[in-house]
Amino acid sequence: MRFQAVKGTRDFYPEDMAIRNWIVKSWRDVSLRNGFEEYDGPIFEYLDLFKAKSGEGIVSELFHFKDRGDRDLAIRPEMTPTLARMICAKAHSLPRPIKWFSTPRLCRAERPQRGRLREFFQWNIDIVGTDDVVSDAECIFVILDFFRQIGLTPADVVLKINSRSLLAALLSARGFEPSRHQEIYTVLDKRDKLPEDAYAEVLGKVVRTDREKADLRAIVQAHGENGLNEIAGLVTHDPAATAEVELLRRLFGLLGTMGVADYCTFDMSVVRGLAYYTGVVFEGFGKAGLQRAICGGGRYDQLLELLGGPPMSGIGFGTSDVVILDLLAELDRLPADARVSKRVEFYVIDADPSRFETVLDLVARLRSAGYAAEFSYKRQAIPKQFKQASAVGAKHAVSR
Ligand code: HAM
Question: N or C, which end of the chain has less CB nearby within 10 Å?
Answer without folding.
Answer: N
